[in-house]
Write a sequence for this structure.
């Protein structure tokens, strides 16, 4: 089932900027989440996957928080982008790393949290000793509004 363009934009603003959808959803809870966490993956975590599935691993690696505001995320229609490049900790030890094929946006700074959205990294990032992986602010997540096959 595809969403309308307007609803996709409203849903993106709710998830990524904390903007309520009038009559449907509010962000005004006692303690709303004010940040989201981006992660890198060496394989597709899949629709049922958690943040830790196929997650890139090396001693210095950590997920990167992005504020859940218009200062953290740009939304145009149904397309979401980080406002600034997302830079992950550099790999200074020669242990781990890998070929990054996917990224996720999820709920937790560490552990097996819920994946809110996922996407592909194209071209893939080969992360090894001395590399500092980053996702550019041209990295996009697109909410599906296409009627094909619906």
């Amino acid at each position: 089932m595809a969403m309308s363009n307007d609803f996709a934009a409203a849903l993106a603003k709710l998830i990524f900027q904390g903007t309520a959808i009038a009559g449907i959803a509010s962000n005004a809870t006692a303690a709303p989440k004010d940040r989201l966490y981006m992660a890198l993956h060496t394989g597709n975590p899949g629709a049922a996957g958690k943040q830790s599935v196929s997650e890139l691993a090396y001693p210095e690696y950590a997920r990167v928080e992005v504020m859940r505001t218009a200062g953290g995320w740009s939304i145009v229609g149904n397309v979401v982008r980080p406002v600034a490049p997302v830079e992950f900790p550099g790999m200074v030890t020669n242990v781990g790393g890998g070929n990054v094929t996917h990224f996720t946006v999820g709920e937790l700074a560490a552990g097996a949290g819920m994946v809110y959205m996922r996407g592909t990294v194209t071209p893939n990032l080969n992360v090894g000793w001395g590399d500092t992986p980053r996702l550019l602010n041209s990295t996009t997540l697109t909410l599906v509004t296409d009627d094909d096959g619906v």
User: Anything to note?
Assistant: The helical segments are 5-17. The chain has a mean pLDDT of 93. The chain is about 10% helix and 30% strand. Residues 5-142 form one domain.
